[in-house]
Amino acid sequence: MRYLVRDRILGIGDDYWIEDDRGNKVFLVDGKAMRLRDTFELKDAGGRVLVDIRRKMFAVRDTMVIERDGEPLATIRRKRLSLLRNHYRVSLADGSTELDVSGRILDREFAVEYDGELLAVVSRRWLHVRETYGVDVVREDADPALLIAVAVCVIHLAQKEREDG
């Protein structure tokens, strides 16, 4: 399933819809303004919060955490010893599962993999609408909310890294 994301991810306090490939509003990204740390909520079309996305305040490396129902679901950070500048590791809360995110993050051209198997592709190439990118969830059994949240996080972290120098 392919989802279309308007590229306003980085504005805290901004809300925007994520649509499916038929133009139906599927998820709402609710940016929380007036918070000390970067915070987003990913909601379904009915307004139910699916995941919370927060930037950890006191971490050695920039880190974002995805929570579901108040419980940690995943932690995202840039891979420590990567020769590729745009390589992130997603550690799931179960402690044994890690997803790899690599590609040109700021260009919105990257992949999310688990153990070498493709889960999702993020790309602008398929789209003709400016400032929009697609998240194509490849596996049927994958959690689209989690994969969209991962895309939001890695783009946010890469943008922060670029701004910080």
Automatic annotation (TrEMBL):
Protein name per its UniProtKB record: Uncharacterized protein YxjI
Pfam assignment, any one: LOR
Domain of life (superkingdom): Bacteria
Similarity remark: Belongs to the LOR family.
InterPro entries: LOR (IPR007612), LOR_sf (IPR038595), Tubby-like_C (IPR025659)
